[in-house]
Amino acid sequence: MTAATFEEIGRVLRNERRFAILSHVRPDGDALGSQLALALSLQKLGKEVRVWNEDGMLEKYSFLPRAELLTKPPAVPEEFDAAVALDTAIQNRLGTTRAAVRSAKIWINIDHHSSNPGYGDLVHIDTSAPATAEIIFRLIKSQGLPLDRDIATNLYAAISTDTGSFQYPKKRSSSVSSEVRACRWIAILQPIFTRRFPPIPVRFNIPRPARARSKSPLN
Questions:
Q1: What is the DSSP letter of 27?
Q2: What is the pLDDT of residues 97-135, one digit of tens each?
């Protein structure tokens, strides 16, 4: 399997018109936040986007910006130019969302799980990433895709929930742990998140030095 580059994926995101953004059954914050972040970025490009999960939006994540966009899949399947599976190592874990896609010219698979076999036409799996949302953040930044406060908030929540508020000790293959890498991105996004949602129901611990060194990606 040859990994798709961000440039290849970005080309599809810019050139195609109608997208389905999907994630795994029994979703976590990384799945839902990643879906919403990518969907909102595509909407700002003028794309038509459906955001589906078999279980719909979980109540505990209903504080996420534009949470209402994420719904259970419809009974009648729809056609798309591209379908994007996020944070879903095994394709059948897409559940009923997979059947709701009648057809898609291109399937994109973006994930951070080592167990992902690489299904789809364009596949980007980064097992060093602590969360799929970090990959989405780097995709958006590298391709100059829209990034606003709502998108950043979804990314922040997604990475935080998938790293146990940055406490899980998962290590990168390099000398820098994935936790530290996550904190580097989150230090960028955290001020946006806390301004938007002061009474956040999840505890976030950001190392002070990382926060001080970071610059906002929105400037």
A1: -
A2: 999 999 999 999 999 999 999 999 999 999 988 889 989
- Which pTM does this prediction carry? 0.79
For the cut 70, the answer to whether the pLDDT of residue 163 exceeds it is no
Strand partners, 85: 22, 109
Spatial distance between the Cα atoms of 145 and 121, rounded to a whole number of angstroms = 21
- Take residue 164 and report the two structure tokens written for it: 């146990």
Instruction: Please give the distance of CA 168 from its chain centroid, rounded to a whole number.
Output: 19
Show the tokens assigned to 35.
């879906």
DSSP 138-188: HHHHHTT----HHHHHHHHHHHHHHTTTTT-----SSSS-HHHHHHHHHHH
Torsion of CA 174, 160, 52, 129, to 10 degrees: 0
Rounded CA separation 97/128 (Å): 27
Q: With respect to CATH, is domain 6-213 assigned 3.90.1640.10?
A: yes
